[in-house]
Design a protein that fits this description.
Blueprint (H helix, E strand, L loop, with lengths): L1 H31 L3 H13 L1 H12 L4 H21 L14 H11 L4 E10 H15 L3 E6 L6 H15 L3 E6 L9 H9 L3 E4 L15 E2 L3 E4 L3 E5 L17 E2 L1 E6 L3 H16 L16 E6 L9 H12 L3 E5 L3 E2 L2 H12 L3 E7 L5 H15 L4 E5 L3 E2 L3 E4 L3 E5 L3 E2 H6 E2 L2 E5 L1 H16 L1 E3 L9 H13 L4
Parallel strand pairs: 2-3, 3-4, 5-19, 8-15, 11-13, 12-18, 13-14
Antiparallel strand pairs: 1-9, 1-10, 2-6, 6-7, 7-9, 10-20, 11-16, 14-21, 16-17, 17-20
Helix pairs in contact: 1-2, 1-3, 2-3, 4-9, 5-10, 10-11, 11-12, 12-15
């Protein structure tokens, strides 16, 4: 009986200890969460299920890393000083002088770089066209290649990329690769060793800045960037993996969009990579900051938000785009877990008569995030926002269209993680011709989608239950 009493006392001590720790972490979340909704989400979760919430908080809960943020801002300033010093040409003049400056001023402030004219932007729809263009650029590279990807897999497309890069390195091209340690967690050492043997620099984004938080899932680099010779750039939704070419039977077909850019704005894409490289290695890059003048007809700038920004630049990017809409606002995002500011902006846009459409996947890749969207659908639908669910496969693109002249393609999802916790990138374009290309693409996507008109309380019971639980976690997803 004494032996049994000992184990009962130990169990009681563990239970009490968990609740004490949960209370402490709830206090920490109140201090450190970037939003009141995020803090409340953690407080409720820690109080209701401390045994589950405590380990999740350790991994996901900390969104502020003071030493990391301070150092990141210092390095960003250093990278931009180098950029300003070494750029040969002054910023290109804007192509479309009829642009209402008020519609783009906030974009420029958020980006910290100017809107540049003279660019050519080409949509790359789905994996085959994207990797064909990417591989073609690699094969034509003469000086250097810069690659940043959240996910790199050692599969068919990953090995094809590796072989192209080693071949380019063999002919004297300098190659630098950044990958994220969480997104590329399963990338084996042999894959990296082959690249390094070809004198290709391969660096994990946070390897030099862990500062005792190696297990943290936040402060991740979700950007997808490739720059070749400073003259051609790529950004968008596609990582390096077979699923992005519809080779995963669970997500066939995989619907995604990437962007190929030529012109002055390539220097701004390159700047985002240079800042990340300086962060990861403490070494600045000697690059070509004077892209070839191609006399394109699209104005563009690069917004590269991240958790070290002094303001919520990811959320403000969406709010500014929504506020600029006068006739239509179409957004494609695989996840729809926006903050209250974005929800309010969407509702107001619809109420003032803007054609607001949100395109999301009808199939889940991350179940909790997918379920958390359903309560938000009801909130915006009541104001007149139309929700479209992509029918087949999985829709992963991150595209935005405002009226007939503003478009954006990049890596930013319409959720809290993209807006506040990850490093992201998108190219915002001004110009009717490219906006027409984006509109035509999205019209085809809407034709492959179903208008969601069923409220959550009329959905199947399991979906309702899951959605209500997931909604509690929405601020921390």
């Amino acid at each position: 009986m004494q032996h049994l009493g000992f184990w009962q006392d130990l169990l009681l001590l563990l239970v009490v200890g968990h609740y004490i720790l949960a209370a402490y972490l709830a206090y920490v979340s109140l201090q450190q969460s970037r939003t009141a909704q995020g803090a409340m989400g953690w407080v409720i979760f820690l109080a209701a299920a401390p045994f589950i919430a405590i380990p999740l908080f350790v991994v996901l809960g900390k969104s502020r890393f003071p030493s990391k943020v301070t150092r990141r801002r210092e390095l960003r300033g250093a990278a931009r000083a180098i950029w300003q010093e070494r750029r040969i040409n002054k910023p290109a003049t804007r192509f479309d002088h009829s642009i209402d400056q008020r519609r783009i001023r906030a974009f420029e402030h958020l980006a910290g770089v100017p809107l540049l004219g003279g660019n050519h932007c080409r949509l790359l729809i789905n994996g085959d066209s994207t990797f064909e263009a990417v591989f073609g650029a690699i094969d034509r590279a003469e000086r250097y290649i810069l690659i940043s990807s959240y996910i790199i897999r050692d599969d068919r497309i990953g090995r094809a990329l590796r072989d192209r890069l080693t071949a380019a390195a063999g002919r004297g091209v300098t190659i630098r690769i950044l990958y994220d340690g969480v997104g590329s967690n399963w990338l084996n050492r042999d894959y990296i060793a082959i690249l390094q043997a070809a004198r290709i620099e391969v660096v994990e984004f946070n390897a030099n800045r862990r500062l005792g938080s190696w297990f943290q899932f936040n402060f991740r680099n979700h950007r997808k960037i490739m720059v070749v010779d400073g003259d051609i750039g790529f950004v968008g939704g596609l990582n390096v993996g077979d699923e992005y070419l519809s080779r995963d039977p669970r997500f066939v077909p995989w619907r995604d969009t990437h962007l190929q850019v030529k012109g002055p704005v390539v220097a701004e894409i390159q700047l985002a990579f240079a800042e990340d490289w300086l962060w990861a290695t403490d070494r600045p890059l000697d690059l070509n900051w004077d892209p070839v003048d191609i006399e394109g007809n699209t104005d563009a700038l690069v917004i590269a938000p991240g958790p070290a920004d002094p303001i919520e630049s990811g959320s403000l990017y969406f709010c500014n785009a929504i506020g600029a809409a006068q006739e239509r606002l179409w957004i494609a995002s695989p996840y729809f877990v926006p903050d209250t500011d974005i929800l309010t902006a969407l509702k107001l846009a619809a109420l003032r008569g803007v054609d607001v459409r949100i395109l999301v996947p009808g199939r889940a890749d991350h179940l909790t995030v997918w379920l958390a969207a359903f309560p938000h659908f009801d909130i915006v639908r009541d104001a007149g926002v139309k929700i479209y669910q992509y029918r087949d496969g999985f829709m992963h693109q991150k595209v935005l269209l405002v009226d007939d002249d503003i478009a954006s393609v990049g890596s930013i999802n319409l959720d809290n993680r993209s807006c506040r916790l990850n490093f992201e990138i998108t190219v915002v374009t001004i110009g009717k011709q490219f906006a027409d290309d984006v509109a035509a693409m999205l019209i085809e996507d809407f034709a492959e989608s179903d208008l969601l008109e069923i409220a959550l309380d009329r959905q199947p019971r399991l979906l309702r239950m899951g959605a209500h639980f997931a909604r509690l976690l929405a601020p921390i997803l």
